[in-house]
Amino acid sequence: MGNTWRSLAGLAVLVLVGSAAAYTVVPGDTLSDIAQRHGVSVADVVGANGITDPDLIRVGEVLSIPGAGAAGDTRPDPGGAAAPRTHVVQPGESLSRIAARYGVSVADLVTANGITDPNRVLAGSRLRLDPAAPAGVPAGVAPVVPGVAAGGGATHLVAPGQTLSGIAAEHGVSVADLVAANGIADPNLIRAGQRLVVPGGWTCPVPDLTSFLDDFGAPRAEGRFHEGIDLFAPRSSPVLAPVGGTVEVLEGRIGGKQFRLSGDDGFLYIGTHLDAFGATGRVSAGTVIGQVGDTGSARGTSPHLHFEIHPEGLPPINPFPTVTAACR
Fold first, then answer.
1. Is the domain of 223 the same as that of 309?
2. Which among 10, 143, 165, 290 could bridge 274 via Cys, Cβ 3.0 to 4.6 Å?
3. Which of 25-39, 63-77, 82-96, 244-258 has the highest mean pLDDT?
4. Are residues 193 and 216 in the same domain?
5. Is the pLDDT of residue 76 over 70?
6. What pTM was computed for the model?
């Protein structure tokens, strides 16, 4: 049995030591993934291991996981599978070919990966194979399905002739709520083209958004994969909390200035490459929690917010459907 385990290349090693566990980093791991799989915070892992840069961990490095229980790692092992299987797309592969290879349907792959165009898969990107762990979207924002208009959303673009009372009625909120959420001085004065935050829903994290692409899962340097999407906007544009929750900030070599928002909806939201931090601690949806920039490994690129969504206890999901629905 011992020889069998040792022959499995790349398998994560988990050893319980008292109330802590030792975890060996394998290719593709991030500190946030490791922390989530063991039910601890990134700060706990950082503190337990004296890590100075949360973005920099090395394959083969052994980390101490404080307070990890026997469940520990959720990677597949010879006795069963808990984590979703994945496949790295090879040049020339199609979604249908990948689906046939693993005995799943194209629809399953589309659902599991938040794919909006089944005819477009990026070579080198990582796909989740198990439909049992669908990509999903946070509550309050309908997913974007090809050919179907997205519903929901928590921002409103003012059209010519609209009034604040009409917009409030459309979204089922009070005029007072709209006034408070947007800092409106004169409720009778709103302009066409103005984007209003609608309280109580999922807010577009970058109201001044100029462009974004669906490159979730695309390959990155050092054996990593893109675990979010990039939201481009002018430098120093405000970054808003998409939901209410608790914000903590940190700085790293790759992510630069970063925020981590533990949302009241059960999702963890991560944003990186900020030029400056905003509010921390307890925040409500629409609170300014940073400014768009190019810190970290993005230095010298067009200013943008790298944005991730992590369901509780699961790998990150594709933010593209959610962002499209909320920021359109």
1. yes
2. 290
3. 244-258
4. no
5. no
6. 0.54
- In-domain check, residue 205: no
Is residue 202 assigned to a domain?
no
Which residues, 6+ apart, have CB-to-CB distance to 187 below 8 Å? 164, 175, 179
The confidence score (pLDDT) of residue 210 equals 92
The bridge status of strand 267-274 relative to strand 304-311 is: antiparallel
Return the axis-axis angle of helices 164-171 and 175-182, rounded to nearest 10°. Answer: 100
- Domain with 221, as residue range(s), is 211-327
How does pLDDT run across 181-215, given as a tens digit for each residue?
788 888 888 988 887 777 766 788 999 999 988 88
Confidence of residue 276 (pLDDT cuts 50, 70, 90): very high
Cβ atoms of 203 and 257 closer than 8 Å: no
Distance CA 242, CA 86 (A): 29
Please provide residue 149's backbone torsions phi and psi, each rounded to the nearest 5 degrees: -65, 140
Q: Tell me the C-alpha distance between 91 and 148, whole Å.
A: 30
pLDDT of residue 26: 67
DSSP state of 301: S
Q: What is the CA radius of gyration of the chain?
A: 21
CB 199 within 8 A of CB 156: no
Domain end: 17, 34, 66, which one?
66
β-partners of residue 95 are none
Residues 14 and 48 in one domain: yes
Q: Are 39 and 55 in contact (CB under 8 A)?
A: no
Say whether both 176 and 265 belong to one domain. no
Are residues 217 and 193 part of one domain?
A: no
| Residue 73 exposed, middle or buried by CB count within 10 Å (0-12, 13-18, 19+) | buried
User: For residue 69, is pLDDT > 60?
Assistant: no
Q: Please state, in angstroms and as integers, the Cα–Cα distance from residue 257 to each residue in 116, 180, 242, 284, following that order.
A: 30, 29, 18, 21
Amino acid symbol at 294: D
DSSP helix/strand/coil, 128: strand
Domain harbouring 233, CATH code: 2.70.70.10
